[in-house]
Each structure stands twice: as structure tokens, then as C-alpha cells.
């Protein structure tokens, strides 16, 4: 491609609205342009990279014997009502009506559509298993779209769905897909890890996320320093505290804490260590109210709590509900002497490790000291908090968690029969009995993968593409377009490399060399060949890898072989 003919509107500065590296560089490198909040147009350079991701994904899915289909973006509400998600999915589901007043949504995911497709065609165990995938545009009305393609409202995703007669078959296919995903991200040239994850609104019994590791990642990954256990911190299991630490010889004492509510405020007021506090939170879970206790330095993991309670909705209680349960205004709740004696109390295991705690007294402007968890209140002890650096690994002896940042680019789920039971996707087994199909689903964010590659591969000057995802393989820069020798050598190398099957970008603009070099660093093609009058007279060209600082001279008559060797070494 000749750059003079390419639509490549690069920017010298990052727009003020761009927050993360990939968003800034994709805008500056002329890959994307914003149309609306969370909605972006892909420009030619962006299309090229995303097509590279798609090609790798399609290749590995086909190699795993999944079959490609294409499903509608606009989905009738009846399907979502069958699965029960029409009312549960929330405001992220963009709903619309046609001219007849019939309700539809823009598909954020396609479990309902694929289940409807399969239930009408597959009736016998002999027709199973089947694995179907598509690469398609989705829409989720994110409350706060940000980070460009990393968290947009409209995005391209590969989603696949498999259907099985037995759990064993489903788990075999899940493993096939897990390995296919590992192949995909290895072929993309990315450093990644596979972690246990929460299934969220998709549902299912277990799932794994594929995380591209990057310091700028918005997700936290807990991995053991000793064994291979790794999980999203929202999912990471924590080792239980087996027994209580007690201090029965100290009686509860009330202390006045006028206007002091938060743990930081109370610890400062009482000159006490925050680790000696029991944090008390009141939640409304579906139609019930529950009390949640954690050690003062911990944060509640609401996904764990939601799983434990097995509820659809979970939110912090209103001020009025808190006062009804505790008998006190917000800020003074505690597990001892609650006004509502019937309310269920759930405590994190870490609470057992506090022998003499400080809590709210369920009385305005008052806290209590010397609270003993075993002696002074009864609770159900469970794993409720978010994992942090240094936590003990639950799977091995002596291992501890280290926390790294990551970007989720893929997620696979074992769904079980959640959708097939709700939507009547059944088959006849070998005994002629009707059984619901067992499902798994598998998703990859195409745009997120390209953006994550930039987050992992960049410097101050711009993008440093891994070769498999680069828009072009080689970037040729003739320094002086008025010099016939430079232009002729550039044209000859351009044509020769194209004959070798490479994607080549020739910067044939009449701009100054500095402008060309700055743009080359910004768009980040893996190999750059610079052709200048001085080196050309000596029979040499300059070859530079984007990820290296120094360039080197190569013989002009060996340029094709040198470029091919450099690319093969990446």
C-alpha cells in the first residue's frame, strides 16, 4: 500500500478524552474515530489489525472443528423472555420497538438465538455434540463506556456455543476450546495467563478468563507464587481460618464516638489499629436483608456474596433499612445487639482472626470495644472478601498470592442446562428419554485483543505491534522523494517484498524525513527499511526493528532476504 493513497489521519497529540494507552495510540495512529460514546468507526489501519485477529481466531476455531454461522444482531424479546433474561439483564440491554410495536434488543450475546436455532433442528443424541461460532458486532449499553475499544458499547466478538448429551462430553469440548484459545493468544504474540473467573450474567457452573498481562490492565489477577493456581481477584478462593482467636477475659465496653463513622475516622479517634475492627455492611438481597461482616482492612467481594446467597439482585441497603435493622443511623452498625434479631449474619473467615474487636454499637455516636466473634454474636463463616497480595493460596502449602494487572480478552463458560431447560432445547437419549442439552459458550473480544496488544507493546513514541497483528509487515521509507535513486530502490524493494507475499507500506509522501520517521514509530510496523541517498551510494539500506533502538546497514542486493529473516525472527 502506498501511504500517499491511504486514509491515515495521524494526530500529533492525544485527545483529552482518551485515558489509556491503547485508546490514545489508536486515535493518534489513525486506527479509530469516535462516533458516539462507546461507538467507534474503524479506519483502514484499524480494520487491517482486527482482520489479522479474526483470521487467527477463525483458523483455530476451524482447526478445532467448530462450524461458522451468522446470527442476527436484532433479536426479538420473546427469546429473552423465554430464558428469563429480559427483565434480569438490566439497562445494558438496548431495547427497541419496530413499527408494529413489537419489542426487540440489540444482541449483547447470543445464547438465546443459538439455543433457538439448535432446538428446532437437533432432536437425537446421535446429532450431538455440535459447536457453532460467529464473528459479529455486539452492543451493550455500558453505563460508562471508556478506554476506546477496550470497553465500548458496540464491539466485535467471536462467540461460540457447543451442545452436548453428557457432562463428560461438554467438559471434553471445554478443554478443546481452552487449548484453542491458548493457541490463539500465543499466535497473536501476546503474554497472557488463564484464570478462574466468575460467570456473571452469562451464568453457568464454572468459567475461565484469558488475561493479557499489562501494567495498565483494569482487572486484577491473583496467582500463586508456588503452584499454578490463578484467578481473577473477584473469583480467587481464600484459605479459611480454621479456629477462633478469643479474648474472653475482656468485657464489652461502650465508647462515645460523636460524629465519627468510618473505620479510618474511628481508628484515628480511638488511636486503634484498623485491623482490630469488624466492618458491618447491610445488604438487600432479592427480598431479604442480610448483614455482612469483614475485618476492617478488607473489601467485600459482592460476586462471592451473590453466589453464596444464590440471589439475582444484590445492593447495599437504604438508610431507612439500615436503621430498621440496627436501630441506629448509618455509620454505627455492628453484629452485637441488632434490633432485627432474625436477620441472617454472614462473616468472612478473617473475622475469626480478631480476638478483641471494635464494632458499631447499633446506637448513634457509639462504638463498642472488646467484641469476641465466637462469644458475642453468631454468624455463618464463609469466604467473602477480595483477594490481596500475600494471601495464602487455597490449593497448596506455602504459596501466597501475587497480584498482577491484566486485560480480559477471552472468556469460556460451562453453562450446563440453564438455557436449554428454560427454552426447551431437548434431545432423545439412547433410551428414548427427553433430556435438556448441556451447553458451553466461548467468547473472544476481537477489538479488545488488538487494544490489549497495544497496552502490552508500546513505548513513548507509539505502538510496537507483535508481527501477527501488525497492519503491515514492513514499512519502507525513501528519505528523499526528489532523488530518483531513492525512489527507484524503494519501488523495487516494495514490489519484491509484495511478490514474497508480505503486506508492505511504502511511505511515498513528499514530507520531510522527520515526519515520516515519527509516523513510522507511531503506527509501529515491525520492520522498517530506510533508503537514503548516502547509504544507497554505498550499496546499503538501513533496517530497523520497531522494538529495537539501533538500526543496521544491510546490502541493497540482499534486502529482501534480510527483511524476510528479520520478520521470521520475530
Report on the structure:
By secondary structure, the chain is an alpha+beta fold. It folds into three domains: 274 residues, BirA Bifunctional Protein, domain 2 (2-Layer Sandwich); 130 residues, YbaK protein (Alpha-Beta Complex); 97 residues, Anticodon-binding domain (Rossmann fold, 3-Layer(aba) Sandwich). The protein has 16 helices and 31 strands. Helix 1 packs across helix 12, helix 2 packs antiparallel against helix 6 and helix 2 packs across helix 12. The longest helix has 21 residues. The two termini are 22 Å apart.
Q: Could you please say which CATH topology of the largest domain applies here?
A: BirA Bifunctional Protein, domain 2
**Molecular shape:** globular
Which residue ranges are poorly predicted, with pLDDT under 50 across at least 5 consecutive positions? Answer: none
CATH-level-4 superfamily name of the largest domain: Bira Bifunctional Protein, Domain 2
Question: What is this structure's SSE topology?
Answer:
Layout: H1 21-28, E1 32-36, E2 39-42, H2 44-63, E3 67-68, E4 74-76, H3 77-83, H4 85-88, E5 95-97, E6 103-106, H5 111-119, E7 130-139, E8 154-164, H6 167-187, E9 192-197, E10 206-213, E11 219-224, E12 230-232, E13 253-256, H7 263-270, E14 278-285, E15 288-295, H8 302-309, E16 314-316, H9 319-326, E17 344-348, E18 357-360, E19 366-371, H10 373-376, E20 380-382, E21 401-416, H11 418-423, E22 426-428, E23 434-436, E24 438-445, H12 446-456, E25 458-459, E26 462-463, E27 474-478, H13 484-499, E28 504-506, H14 513-523, E29 527-531, H15 533-537, E30 540-545, E31 552-555, H16 559-568
Parallel strand pairs: 3-7, 15-17, 17-20, 27-28, 27-29
Antiparallel strand pairs: 1-2, 4-6, 5-6, 7-8, 8-24, 9-10, 10-21, 11-12, 11-21, 13-19, 14-15, 14-16, 18-19, 21-24, 22-23, 25-26, 29-30, 30-31
Helix pairs in contact: 1-12, 2-6, 2-12
Amino acid at each position: 500500500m502506498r501511504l500517499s493513497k491511504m486514509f491515515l489521519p495521524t494526530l500529533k497529540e492525544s485527545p483529552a478524552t482518551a485515558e489509556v494507552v491503547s485508546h490514545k495510540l489508536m486515535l493518534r495512529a489513525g486506527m479509530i474515530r469516535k462516533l458516539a460514546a462507546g461507538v467507534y468507526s474503524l479506519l483502514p489501519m484499524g480494520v487491517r489489525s482486527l482482520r489479522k485477529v479474526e483470521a487467527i481466531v477463525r483458523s483455530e476455531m476451524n482447526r478445532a472443528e467448530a462450524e461458522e454461522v451468522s446470527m442476527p444482531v436484532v433479536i426479538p424479546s420473546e427469546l429473552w423472555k423465554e430464558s428469563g433474561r429480559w427483565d434480569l439483564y438490566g439497562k445494558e440491554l438496548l431495547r427497541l420497538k419496530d413499527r408494529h410495536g413489537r419489542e426487540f434488543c440489540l444482541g449483547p450475546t447470543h445464547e438465546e438465538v443459538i439455543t433457538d436455532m439448535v432446538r428446532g433442528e437437533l432432536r437425537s443424541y446421535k446429532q450431538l455434540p455440535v459447536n457453532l461460532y460467529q464473528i459479529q458486532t455486539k452492543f451493550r449499553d455500558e453505563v460508562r463506556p471508556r478506554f476506546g475499544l477496550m470497553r465500548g458499547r458496540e464491539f466485535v466478538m467471536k462467540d461460540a456455543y457447543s451442545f452436548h448429551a453428557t457432562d463428560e462430553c461438554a467438559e471434553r469440548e471445554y478443554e478443546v476450546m481452552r487449548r484453542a484459545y491458548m493457541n490463539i493468544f500465543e499466535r497473536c504474540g501476546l503474554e497472557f495467563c488463564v484464570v478462574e473467573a466468575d460467570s456473571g450474567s452469562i451464568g453457568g457452573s464454572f468459567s475461565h478468563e484469558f488475561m493479557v498481562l499489562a501494567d495498565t490492565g483494569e482487572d486484577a489477577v491473583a496467582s500463586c507464587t508456588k503452584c499454578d493456581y490463578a484467578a481473577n481477584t473477584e473469583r480467587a478462593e481464600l484459605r479459611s481460618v480454621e479456629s477462633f482467636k478469643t479474648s474472653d477475659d475482656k468485657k464489652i465496653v461502650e465508647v462515645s464516638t460523636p460524629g465519627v463513622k468510618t473505620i479510618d475516622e474511628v481508628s484515628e479517634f480511638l488511636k486503634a489499629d484498623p485491623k482490630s475492627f469488624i466492618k458491618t455492611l447491610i445488604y438487600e438481597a432479592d427480598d431479604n436483608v442480610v448483614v455482612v461482616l469483614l475485618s476492617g482492612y478488607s473489601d467485600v467481594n459482592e460476586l462471592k456474596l451473590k453466589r453464596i446467597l444464590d440471589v439475582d439482585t444484590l445492593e447495599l441497603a437504604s438508610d431507612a433499612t439500615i436503621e430498621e435493622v440496627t436501630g441506629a443511623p448509618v455509620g454505627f452498625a455492628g453484629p452485637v445487639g441488632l434490633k432485627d434479631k432474625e436477620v441472617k449474619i454472614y462473616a468472612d473467615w478473617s473475622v475469626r482472626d480478631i480476638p478483641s474487636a471494635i464494632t458499631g454499637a447499633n446506637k448513634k455516636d457509639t462504638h463498642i470495644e472488646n467484641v469476641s466473634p465466637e462469644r458475642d454474636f453468631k454468624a455463618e463463616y464463609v469466604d467473602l472478601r477480595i483477594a490481596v497480595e500475600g494471601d495464602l493460596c487455597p490449593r497448596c502449602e506455602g504459596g501466597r498470592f501475587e497480584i498482577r494487572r491484566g486485560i480480559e480478552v477471552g472468556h469460556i463458560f460451562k453453562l450446563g442446562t440453564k438455557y436449554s431447560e428454560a427454552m426447551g432445547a431437548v434431545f432423545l437419549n439412547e433410551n428414548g428419554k427427553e433430556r435438556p442439552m448441556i451447553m458451553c459458550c466461548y467468547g473472544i473480544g476481537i477489538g479488545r485483543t488488538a487494544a490489549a496488544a497495544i497496552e502490552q507493546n508500546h513505548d513513548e513514541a507509539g505502538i510496537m505491534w507483535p508481527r501477527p497483528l501488525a497492519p503491515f509487515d514492513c514499512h519502507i521509507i525513501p528519505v528523499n522523494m526528489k532523488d530518483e535513486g531513492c525512489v527507484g530502490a524503494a519501488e523495487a524493494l516494495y514490489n519484491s517484498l509484495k511478490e514474497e507475499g508480505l503486506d508492505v507500506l511504502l511511505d511515498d509522501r513528499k514530507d520531510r524525513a522527520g515526519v515520516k520517521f515519527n509516523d513510522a514509530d507511531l503506527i509501529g510496523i515491525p520492520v522498517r527499511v530506510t533508503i537514503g541517498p548516502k547509504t544507497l551510494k554505498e550499496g546499503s539500506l538501513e533496517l530497523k526493528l520497531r522494538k529495537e533502538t539501533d538500526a543496521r546497514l544491510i546490502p541493497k542486493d540482499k534486502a529482501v532476504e534480510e527483511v524476510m529473516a528479520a520478520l521470521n525472527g520475530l
